[in-house]
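Bit of a strange request maybe. I'm writing a small parser for structure token strings and I need a real example to test against, not something I typed by hand. Could someone generate the tokens for this chain?
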Amino acid sequence: MFITINGQLGSGKTEICRILRDEYGYEVFHTGKIQREYAKELGISTLELNELCNKDHKYDDIIDGKLVEYGEMKRGEDVVFDSRMAWHFVKDTFKIHLLVSPEIAAERVFAHRVDAAEKYTCKDDAMRGLINRRKVEADRYKRLYHVDMIDYRNYDLVLDTSLTSIRQEVNIIVEALKEFQEKGTKKMLSAPTSLFPTGLEIGGEGVKVVKCDESLYIVNGHDLVKEALNKCNLVMPVELVAQDGEMLNENLTVEQASNTTLADLEKWCKPLGFEFGFIPCKVINNSK
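Reply from user aminoacidic:
Good idea to test on real output. This should exercise your parser:
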């Protein structure tokens, strides 16, 4: 079985892949491996290859072609692809996208930074850097491939790792993979602390959300989210009903639906006894 996994920086991809390798027998494929081998063929460093890719798309095409060839060569084996775009290029995979709240990602990256490019001065600096880097990467891949890496509907499992341990995440992935193989079931699981309130209840069952700038806003099921927060649930199922630029209904855009203000957050948080570690720029702008 092929698994493709990507997601936000600091979401735990590397450790999840390691457990899938060590305990479940998956071979782990990293796009970086292809890049290193191709750079060696060209007699240049990986940094020089990255610079060439930024100047000329043909180098991306060659690397992508090698990824497709590798996938066909390994067809029928258990492989997990740790790659931003393998979900798009490799056929017949279980597609996973990992989320993590920006402040928690910043804590993880700032605490374990080893890359010279990760010289953040503080956690807030790391959070701003990660958010900007994420946007730049998403825009680049959308421009190159005309697909949206942060369109959550592209994936079979969207999992928020903000509160869960690596072990819990692997258990969730294994169970979700089994359900997908047996029933074709797709899932989106969010930490309740990552969901922002709105004044909407559009009706129906369960928690429904819209995505605006990679933040999730509740448009149905506020009481269920409150219950999950009171119980300290780590994740809960949500249904994505609309994303950036779409209409929630014939009269309401996603941008209009996510009109939450700082006053709304204070009203939401105070009875529940918690604070959001990250507040979207949109909420701040709505409050001006």
